[in-house]
Amino acid sequence: MSDNPKFIDRTGYTFPEKLDLWEPLMISKEEIDEEIERLADQPRPENGRRQSLIVHPRWKELGVGPGLNPGVRVTLEVLKPGEQTAPIRHNSTQVNFSIRGEGHSIVNGKKIAFNQYDVWNFPSMATYWHVNDSKDLHVRLSYSNAALLEKMNVHIVDETPPPMMELVEGEQKRAAEEKAKAAEAEADSTRKSPYGTFQLTDDGAWLMPYETLINPESVESKALHWPWEDVKRELDKLSALGKDYVGRRLYLLFNPMTGRFNGTTPNFFATITIRPPKIVDKPHRHVSAAMNYYFHGSGRSTVEGKVYEWKAGDLMLSAPGWG
Fold first, then answer.
1. Which secondary structure element, helix H or strand E, spans residue 301, and what is its range?
2. Which of 144, 277, 313, 314 has the highest CB neighbour count under 10 A?
3. Where are the beta strands (DSSP E) in 88-227?
């Protein structure tokens, strides 16, 4: 019999007045460059993945997966000329940002050729690998929700996925089987509620039957690519708006499959910003955390009254949730 308590008495409990915010964290260009060189100097690992997790000092203290904040993992990845990584897939989603060099990724059979400052996403359970077909070192930052999934004990990683042809054939077979099952269920009144989904109350409460709950209409999640050359052209237009424009000169790298939730993946969003000289943002806060990689210029951020100076090449946990 377990000694662990089954109940925690919270009678009369009052919540702490303040959230225990993680402190902002600066990872300097010099520290990143040093780690890049360290990774590049190592012998090539069997799976080809030269990588380091960039973590907050408090991650272990709070019992979450290794991450730069409790829900997001940032990985520094290095690929030497002529190298490629072994295929892998996982149920975490990723946003990749090339900070040096070029190459290409194969994502579910789709080739994405990238250059410096390009951004591209990986859908959940997409088989992918990276190739450095250039003569120079390639470095990228990869952002994922792996830390959150590990905290929930549901991060699934497959380091030996089936060959791509088998995956395609398997997906086609699965789709055909699902279609056949759906048709069978449609014809079998014992497998489908005759009442469907319907509104219960005038103020908008609905009821949904079991069959729809477990098998909602799927939305395809694709690997998308935001080339820096094209993105910069649009950012330059924002820069030219002049001092009268009071909005933020920012674009979300938007994935339409996320709909009104405004994501780059179904789990989080990436934005890219340009700030003309002497621009100062209005104070604000949000539940989401902000991690900024500065790749041009210099400036400062003020978080909870404390000033942090940054420059090109620095990475910063700029805003912990609700800071």
1. strand 298-303
2. 144
3. 89-90, 94-100, 103-107, 110-114, 119-122, 128-131, 138-144, 157-158, 198-199, 206-207, 225-226
Closest CA to 142 of 272, 52, 238: 52
**Comparing C-alpha atoms, which of 82, 98, 80 is closest to residue 37?**
80
Interval 102-142: pLDDT, tens: 999 999 999 999 999 999 999 999 999 999 999 999 999 99
* Kind of pairing between the strands at 298-303 and 290-293: unpaired
Query: Cα separation of 284 and 106, whole Å?
Result: 39
Tokens of 277: 């000289």
Specify the 3-state DSSP secondary structure of 212.
helix
Residues 228 and 83: their CA atoms lie apart, in Å, by: 23
- What are the b/e assignments for 174-206, b being 16+ CB within 10 Å? eeeeeeeeeeeeeeeeeebeeeeeeeeeeeeee
Say which residues have a Cβ less than 8 Å from residue 271's Cβ, sequence separation at least 6.
250, 251, 252, 253
Query: Which one-letter DSSP state was computed for residue 21?
Result: P
> Average pLDDT of the chain?
90
